[in-house]
From TrEMBL:
Subunit note: In the native structure, TdcB is in a dimeric form, whereas in the TdcB-AMP complex, it exists in a tetrameric form (dimer of dimers).
Record bears the keyword Lyase: yes
Family as reported in the entry's similarity comment: Belongs to the serine/threonine dehydratase family.
GO biological process terms on file: isoleucine biosynthetic process; L-serine catabolic process; L-threonine catabolic process
E.C. numbers: 4.3.1.19
Family annotation (SUPFAM superfamilies): ACT-like (SSF55021), Tryptophan synthase beta subunit-like PLP-dependent enzymes (SSF53686)
Top enzyme category: lyase
Ranges of biased composition (kind: Polar residues): 1-17
Gene Ontology molecular function: any one: threonine deaminase activity
Protein name per its UniProtKB record: L-threonine dehydratase catabolic TdcB
Region (Disordered): 1-22
Species per Swiss-Prot/TrEMBL record: Streptomyces paludis
Length: 419
């Protein structure tokens, strides 16, 4: 689904009553602060996506940024702007991953003490990376809301400065430097597609781009299971939505930030949603075709292109916002993506339980050119006859049509497919 905002404004820096309107000059100032700190990340073409939409598609590779995501940009600008007294008090943040690492490295580079609260179930690689970047990590709470409350309480008790992940002008200005780089690396761009969680990245990119090139369309993407922006845009104000289950934890935010929302409401042309199947298919495509390790949130713009390729005027730039994905989760997502693309097939078959029966069945699968990943027998089900067995087989296939061909070959050989 999509929620069209179709917005235009004569003053891109307007934030409808914000105490501190954000401007293009803030973003240019942030870029000077980030010089020598954040990388100007690469822009890579995608032949597959270019053929798909019929116009050039380029990938803005923030997954190759230091700490593995764009978050370092905003965190560094925010912490660099603290007074000497605030720096002496230290900073605190709450995050399940990318913001944690961005704050940790930014603080270390600036000589500021940092404490980062992370959920108890946060992926171990992200916890380890945050510690290695120099932060004291405290595990608290089962969900991010509990972790956030703990971090804010710590700030009140100690005087440490709380570094919000998206709802602060300095954070948005830092993330907006991505937009300046896009315009320089692809001056002919007509559409930019970017994932939206709280909205800091999309708001910053939209402000930078619309200030210089109001003709460029900026499209936001959210996971359908955790999409707070469509109802908020309809209501004209940030509203909270239940925290749904999505693999794209980097854009799983229950309520838009106040400042990002005002900018997105005015400057972002459309906000679309994508399903879990589409996210996993996009992640698989990034890995196989672009050779890019991208987390589900970072793959959300690619998922939007795959879902509705005719909706985007080219040249298109898709922002791969991050590449921090737990290897265990990656394994599950890739299998899910293969299934969504029709390249993974699971079947349960009824066979005669006699010597050589399994080898015969595997021979049929070999002739059908299906790659067997796993096989298991069931012989003790009371529904089975004395000479019967069920075999569950997991196969790698070449696509949806090949799945149908494999099933047809098994039926032609006399096998009953139970599911």
């Amino acid at each position: 689904m999509s929620f069209g905002t179709s917005r235009a404004t004569s003053d891109p820096s307007s934030t409808k009553g914000s105490a501190r309107p954000l401007t293009l000059e803030d973003i240019r100032g942030a870029r000077k602060i980030l010089a020598g700190v954040a990388r100007a990340t690469a822009m890579e073409g995608s032949r597959y996506l270019t053929r798909l939409i019929g116009a050039p598609v380029l990938l803005k590779c923030e997954n190759l940024q230091r700490t593995g995501s764009f978050k370092l940009r905003g965190a560094y600008v925010r912490i660099a702007g603290l007074s000497p007294e605030e720096r002496a008090a230290g900073v605190v943040a709450a995050s399940a991953g990318n913001h944690a690492q961005g704050v940790a490295l930014a603080s270390t580079l600036l000589g500021v003490r940092s404490t980062v609260f992370m959920p108890v179930g946060a992926p171990l690689p992200k916890v380890a990376a945050t510690r290695e970047y120099g932060a004291e990590v405290r595990l608290h709470g089962q969900v991010v809301d509990e972790t956030l409350a703990a971090a804010q309480e710590y700030a009140r008790e100690t005087g440490a400065v709380f570094i919000h992940p998206f709802d602060h002008p300095d954070i948005i200005a830092g993330q907006g430097t991505v937009g300046l780089e896009i315009l320089e690396q692809c001056p002919e761009v007509r559409t930019i597609v970017v994932g939206i969680g709280g909205g800091g990245l999309a708001a910053g990119i939209a402000l930078a781009v619309k200030s210089l090139r109001p003709d460029v369309r900026v499209i936001g993407v959210q996971a359908a299971a955790a999409a707070a922006y469509p109802p908020s845009l309809r209501a004209g104000r940030p509203v909270s939505v239940p925290a749904g289950q999505t693999m794209a934890d980097g854009i799983k935010v229950g309520r838009p930030g106040d400042l990002p929302f005002r900018l997105i409401e005015e400057l972002v042309d459309d906000v679309r949603t994508v399903t879990e199947d589409e996210l996993s298919s996009a992640l698989l495509l990034c890995l196989e075709r672009a050779k890019m390790v991208v987390e589900p949130a970072g793959a959300s713009p690619v998922a939007a292109l795959l879902r509705d390729p005719g909706a985007f005027r080219g040249p298109v730039v898709a922002v791969l916002s991050g590449g921090n994905v737990d290897p265990v989760l990656m394994q599950r997502i890739l299998r899910h993506g293969m299934a969504a693309a029709g390249r993974y097939l699971s079947l349960r078959l009824r066979v005669t339980d006699r010597p050589g029966a399994l080898a015969t069945m595997l021979g049929v699968l070999s002739v059908a050119d299906a790659n067997v990943l796993d096989v298991s027998h069931v012989r003790t089900d009371p529904r089975l006859g004395l000479t019967e067995a069920d075999v569950e087989v997991h196969l790698e296939t070449k696509g949806t049509e090949h799945c149908a061909e494999v099933a047809a070959a098994l039926r032609s050989a006399g096998y009953t497919i139970l599911g």
